[in-house]
Design goal:
This protein is of the alpha+beta class and 248 residues long. It has two domains: 77 residues, no CATH class; 147 residues, no CATH class. It is 29% helix and 34% strand. It contains six helices and 19 strands.
Length: 248
């Protein structure tokens, strides 16, 4: 009986420790945790004896259970001082906090969905590949200032009677969102020695699906009110890419 009682106490203490676990995530810049530099995308579990130095212009957040708070750039915190931020923090749902702390976007989706070319010389484009357009107009951005367009930009799809052609003299082309359907657009560009053909797709959803996706986006946007404008911008961008939506 005594052994069972001891086991229950051990399990309860372990569960309490897990519940109080505090994680640090760097979204931009760096943080130094007890002399160890934490880079963007890295998640570190903090200990009670550690000191956190948030470098200037950096964006750093802490997570405790489903509560998430942002640390101020250029500040140094003891563990106790950092955890004081949770006193008046809002508790989010588990799915929301998991989404905020998810690094799948940063590590994989971002590079795969919005660039083409080799790792040293990517050709950026927007909208990201495979997104659903939720706006009344969109901007096709083919490459950047450091790349040279070798062809016109072509847009084709189920809602267009003919292929649309946009001049290669510009990288940015604004157009009204076409009718519901699936679309592809492509162009050829060069930033190094080798030309690259970029082929991208997007979908224009039905009015009902668009309304539902916008409602979810606006609810997520409203939940970010406690974060700084720059952190909010990054989190919204990640949400859009994670959920494959285009919202300007």
């Amino acid at each position: 009986m005594r052994s069972l009682f001891t086991l229950i106490i051990i399990v309860c203490c372990a569960q309490a420790g897990i519940a109080q676990e505090i994680q640090l995530l760097v979204k931009k810049g760096t943080a130094v945790v007890s002399e160890k530099v934490v880079q963007p995308g890295q998640i570190v579990t903090l200990n009670s004896d550690q000191v956190i130095k948030v470098q200037p212009s950096s964006l750093v957040m802490l997570r405790k259970n489903n509560a998430i708070v942002e640390l101020k750039p250029g500040q140094t915190y003891t563990f106790k001082a950092a955890t004081q931020n949770f006193k008046n923090s809002k508790g989010f749902t588990a799915s929301f906090s998991d989404l905020i702390f998810s690094q799948e976007f940063s590590v994989q989706d971002k590079s795969a969905s919005s660039t083409r070319g080799n790792n040293d010389d990517p050709l950026a484009f927007s909208p990201a590949d495979g997104v659903r357009i939720l706006t009344d107009s969109l901007s096709l951005q083919a490459g950047g200032d450091k790349s040279t367009l070798l062809s016109d930009v072509l847009l084709f799809g189920s809602g267009l009677p003919d292929t649309l052609r946009f001049t290669q003299s510009r990288h940015d082309h604004r157009l009204a969102t076409p009718a519901t359907g699936n679309y592809g657009w492509q162009y050829q560009a060069q930033t190094g020695l080798k030309p690259t053909t970029v082929k991208v797709s997007f979908t224009v959803p039905t009015a009902e699906e668009k309304a539902q996706l916008l409602k979810q986006y606006e609810a997520h946007q409203s939940s970010l009110k406690s974060f700084s404008p720059e952190m909010k911008e990054i989190l919204l961008m990640e949400y859009c890419l994670q959920n494959k939506i285009y919202v300007e």
